[in-house]
């Protein structure tokens, strides 16, 4: 089976991890990361939080700034990214590991919250990955995945992207535009997210909500709720 991206990221060169770290520090992406961190921090006073596909660890850094009582964990399939995250999070208590979310060595029912930003579409076996999230999430708790979706309003997106690009240096604009367009070519449509999730242990306890991040109308928040009881109704929006 052709890889959606995992095989490439497993052997990601150090220079590529450094370039990606530079990209996520431009103002629109920092605004996006800060918004996600605020939302997550508002839902949790304390406990263990796992960031799947943590990359250079920027979301974990923002979470620490907002609430230093959280126990932070980061997981990434790339050794180069984990090294960048360790550098960026130096001096902060955080558990960083190199692994795929499909098979982890975390204990069952271990995390109070799990998040992931822009990695779901790269998973080669997404149903297995989501089922592993179910296993390691505590009953009564939720995972929040923030993913782009392909069936967005193209005209609205073009206007929003143009507004974002004026906030970055001229030499960065072609790279940013290329990165976003490549992302949208690879990501799923909303009905594809639903089809995948309906094959997982969250089949009756998930929600899809379209949101704007940094003004871009291309994002969906996927809430995966591990219920305390077996009764659940579909929460797809």
Task: Provide an overview of this structure.
The chain is α/β, with parallel strands linked by helices and 237 residues long. The protein has a single domain, classed as Vaccinia Virus protein VP39 (Rossmann fold). The chain is built from nine helices and seven strands. The chain has a seven-stranded mixed beta sheet, with helices on both faces. Helix 3 crosses helix 4. The longest helix has 17 residues.
- Overall mean pLDDT score? 92
Question: Radius of gyration, Cα only, in angstroms?
Answer: 17 Å
The helical percent reads 40-55%
Number of helices: 9
Class, according to the CATH hierarchy? Alpha Beta
CATH superfamily: Vaccinia Virus protein VP39
- Strand order, largest beta sheet: 3-2-1-4-5-7-6
Strand content: 15-25%
Instruction: Specify the overall morphology.
Output: globular
Question: What is the CA–CA distance across the termini?
Answer: 31 Å
Order of helices and strands: HHHEHEHEEHEHHHEE
CATH-defined fold name: Rossmann fold
Number of strands: 7
Biggest sheet statistics: 7 strands, mixed
The name of the CATH architecture is 3-Layer(aba) Sandwich
Low-confidence stretches: 230-237
Protein structure class: alpha/beta
Provide the number of structural domains: 1
